[in-house]
Amino acid sequence: MANRPIIAIVGPTGVGKTKLGIALAKAMNGEVISVDSLQTYRHGGIMTAKPTIQEMDGVKHHLIDYLQPDEEPSAFVDLAISRIQQIQDGGRIPLLVGGSISLTEPLLSHPFIQRSDLSVIFLDSDMSLLKPRLDKRVDQMVEEGLIEEVRELYELEQSMLSCPDFSRGVWKAIGYPELRPAVVECNEGSNQTYVKNGIAEMKKHTSSYAQDQINRIRCRLIPAVYVWDINFMVLFVKDEMTFEKRVIQPSISAYLGWLSEDTKGQAAIADRSRTWRSETGLCSQTV
């Protein structure tokens, strides 16, 4: 078996990282460490796409729901290293799952991680395929109570901040600045136009954020992984219908082989990275 292995799953928002992380954790006796700066907050679970108890499906998750609304995850890397060690000491495999590049880069470059047996799964996609999924997810958030959640965050903002500040805490999450006017106007009367406009802006900004993540992963993170000589593979996500066949099944097969030091599993991981590099190229721009 690989020596104290760690698996990281990285990709843009809405690509399926949570789903893959849970599937891998169940298949190989693992626990998930969320690497998402906004899921660290105890509030805003809908707009930050925090996994529900049902979605976790019995898999233990770490580093979610531990910050107050006005705090920042400044100690995240140290906390993550501590949790990784705890999981490994318990004979289980830590899976680092998330798309916050601001946390992923310092975590993967940490000396402890660099000394570990690390492998990274990059979930890649094109915006032409990803945008419809992101738009649908925003609509689902609205159905699940997003507007009421924004109202709760607005009440927290009023009690905790001297003036609006969308650059700090949970209030910087996409969805709050866009839909806040609808909540404010709701206190004064008609707000349907603000809701409609806010949802449209939320979809627009979510897509822009996903594109930025794709660029940063392709142009910064994957080249860094090459430099660090870390084992990795890239899986291209097309749609939800083929996710099980094209992403989950190949990942489980490859990484069960990797853990047992089976050469076929290791070769499968290497083949996936070579195929992606030849088809996509490392980067077409500087980020």
UniProtKB/TrEMBL annotation:
HAMAP family given in the database record: IPP_trans (MF_00185)
Source organism of this protein record: Alternaria tenuissima
Ranges annotated as spanning the membrane: none
Family: Belongs to the IPP transferase family.
UniProt record, GO biological process: tRNA modification
UniProt entry keywords in alphabetical sequence: ATP-binding, Nucleotide-binding, Transferase
Signal peptide: none
Keyword Calcium carried by entry: no
Protein name: Uncharacterized protein
